[in-house]
Amino acid sequence: MNASTEEQPSSSLDGLKWGIIVLLLIAAIGGNYYYDQESVLLRAVGVVVAVGIAGLVAMQTFKGRSAVAFAKESRTEVRKVVWPTRQEAIQTTGIVLVVTLLMSLLLWGLDSVLFWLVGLITGMKVL
């Protein structure tokens, strides 16, 4: 069995932490509805704070630490990407547009021929 399929160790408190996260998110949603007479700005700040605290708690779990590590590795990989120049992007976009136009004309023509053929075979003329 390789490392990717083995059960990963997790803290015994991870379940409690996920429960706290769910309660924080429910409280954020409920508070937003309960205080609907308050300023939208205050409610938005409250929701953002509650979601931020839930995120901080989530980062303390095994899955949260794994997600943060994945995000860091992804950022490193994105830096390695060789992005196309403006000229290459414009040329590629033009090619995609031309091929799309040609394929749409081809499919329209094929559809028209098949429609005519079915009408010829069945003797029905549909406008």
Element-by-element helix/strand order = HHHH
Mean pLDDT: 89
Could you list the spans in which at least 5 consecutive residues all have pLDDT below 50?
none
Structural class: mainly alpha
Q: What is the 3D shape?
A: elongated
Distance between the termini: 65 Å
| Domains, number | 2
Give helix % range.
Answer: over 70%
InterPro entries: SecE_bac, SecE_sf, Translocase_SecE/Sec61-g
Protein name: Protein translocase subunit SecE
Keywords: Cell membrane, Membrane, Protein transport, Translocation, Transmembrane, Transmembrane helix, Transport
Organism: Colwellia maritima
Describe the secondary structure blueprint for this structure:
Elements: H1 14-34, H2 40-58, H3 62-80, H4 86-122
Helix pairs in contact: 1-2
